[in-house]
Design goal:
Layout: H1 8-29, H2 37-42, H3 49-60, H4 64-74, H5 77-82, H6 84-96, H7 98-104, H8 109-116, H9 119-132, H10 136-150, H11 154-165, H12 167-203, H13 206-212, H14 226-235, H15 243-251, H16 255-286, H17 295-303, H18 308-344, H19 349-370, H20 374-395, H21 406-430, H22 444-463
Helix pairs in contact: 1-12, 1-18, 3-12, 3-15, 3-16, 3-18, 4-16, 6-16, 7-15, 7-16, 8-9, 9-18, 9-20, 9-21, 10-11, 10-18, 10-19, 10-20, 12-16, 12-18, 16-17, 17-18, 18-19, 20-21, 20-22, 21-22
Length: 464
């Protein structure tokens, strides 16, 4: 175990953070949300611009340990693949999709599929959205982080993560998520600001990094192939089918709030990415013998004195927990509302959502055991699920949707997912989970996306 050595003051700050988050979550869960489904699922559709921006920014960055790992291994390739394409697609999403989503007054992505294509497409899409939005990567990350910060077994970290990130969401719904995200938004920026100031004052700026870093760490490809870089741009299409974006647009108080909130969020993402990528480069220089996934906490341990280290650790915890509670709730809504409730329609929708939360935690636990790597989980889910969802979801916003029937879209989703999954499994069998060897050096994303385009184009020609 690579335990992070903390002072009693640092532990005190962590304890204060945990209980402040729990207090906020339960305080807002006391309001009468369970009897009003709009309040429970979408905070009454009254999210203001500051709250919208804060919850979107904080939710998007749950993979903070993965960012440190990626930067330590490949340098600024992290920014090229994990930041730049998401800015571009988020800006496009803000202008093209966000106002339409807010005006539609729906609840989820599958709502669009059910409404415009039919039950088969909606049901198949719901299954894939549930898989896509699993909180498993963030549950794994928080377990691992808590284990190394507190010096406890992973199983204890698992239960602490559930109690302090999920329990208040179970009772308070989206309203509790938003209120805690505002606190976590502030803490994540403060934590990394403290670290960057200390690094610059002790070691200097760009010249120091350029002199000390391996050559590949300052190149845009990081020593990897162009196809590897390009596939991350395609995976960034995740933005167009990210349930978190849709949920917040549905919950926004106006179309203008939805659009401007995303644009403001991009600005904050640029700032936060600048800090995290810089910190990752310093970690590569200053930490020569470290588990890359612990690059950030180990860097903080090396350069920050007590109290400031506690602030930084709390900032990292806030970054992960803000995403964990949100993805747990999103997957719960998908399973409870878009699958259970649509099948039965006999019980209170809030009850089904809470059942979905329990199912979500169980499914995530299985994934954590099967794929114990955050970056690998992102890559796998993005490669096999995104190709199947992207075109059917995007088409719902345009008039050409009238040329597609339920069978066409359901077939596109199913066979695209199946093709990507089979290609991925073949690659793992030829290589390994960490280093798959794909036939013809072709990534699973391209196979699934090709199948999706073929079926949808064929359906368009036939139906028109």
């Amino acid at each position: 175990m690579n335990r992070i050595n903390l002072h009693i003051v640092d532990y005190a700050l962590i304890a204060i953070y945990f209980f402040a988050t729990l207090f906020l979550g339960f305080y807002f869960s006391r309001k009468k949300v369970n009897s009003d489904i709009d309040n429970y699922l979408l905070a009454g559709r009254k999210i203001s611009l500051p709250a919208f921006t804060a919850t979107l920014v904080s939710t998007w960055y749950g993979g903070i340990l993965g960012v440190g790992e990626f930067t330590w291994l490949y340098g600024i390739l992290n920014w090229v693949t994990q930041a730049l394409p998401y800015y571009l697609f988020a800006i496009l999403f803000a202008f093209v999709f966000a106002p339409k989503i807010q005006k539609s007054k729906q609840y989820t992505i599958p709502d669009l599929l059910y409404r415009h294509f039919g039950k088969k497409t909606g049901f198949m899409g719901s299954i894939l959205v549930f898989i896509l939005v699993t909180p498993a990567p963030y549950l794994l990350m928080l377990m691992f982080f808590l284990s190394n910060v507190l010096g406890i077994p992973l199983i204890y970290g698992y239960f602490i993560a559930i109690i302090f990130s999920v329990l208040y969401v179970y009772f308070g719904g989206f309203q509790s998520v938003v209120k805690t995200d505002i606190l976590q938004f502030v803490l994540m920026f403060v934590g990394f600001f403290v670290l960057i100031v200390m690094l610059l004052s002790h070691y200097g700026g760009f010249g120091f990094l350029q002199q000390k870093l391996p050559t590949n760490h300052m190149t845009f490809t990081g020593g990897m192939g162009i196809q590897y870089v390009l596939v991350w741009f395609f995976i960034a299409l995740w933005t167009f089918v990210d349930p978190g974006f849709y949920q917040r647009c549905y919950a926004a108080e106006s179309p203008k709030t939805a659009r401007n909130g995303i644009l403001l969020a991009v600005g904050f993402w640029v700032l936060f990415d600048l800090m995290t990528t810089t910190a990752g480069l310093y970690a590569r220089v200053l930490l020569t013998d470290v588990n890359p996934i612990l690059a950030f906490p180990k860097l903080g341990e090396k350069v920050l004195p007590p109290f400031y280290l506690g602030i930084f650790i709390v900032g990292m915890l806030a970054t992960v927990m803000s995403t964990l509670d949100s993805t747990v709730f999103l997957s719960a809504v998908t399973f409870g509302r878009d699958l259970l409730w649509r099948i039965r329609r006999k019980s209170n929708l809030t009850k089904y959502t809470k059942i979905g939360m329990i199912i979500s935690i169980g499914f995530s636990t299985i994934l954590v055991v099967l794929i114990p790597s955050v970056v690998r989980m992102w890559y796998t889910l993005g490669s096999v699920v995104i190709p199947a969802l992207i075109l059917p979801v995007v088409i719902t916003f345009f008039k050409i949707r009238k040329y597609f029937n339920d069978w066409t879209m359901m077939s596109s989703i199913f066979f695209s997912f199946l093709a990507s999954l089979i290609w991925f499994i073949i690659g793992v069998n030829l290589g390994s989970l960490d280093m798959p060897i794909y036939l013809y050096n072709t990534q699973p994303f391209y196979i699934g996306f090709g199948v999706s385009i073929t079926i949808i184009l064929g359906g368009f020609i036939v139906n028109r």
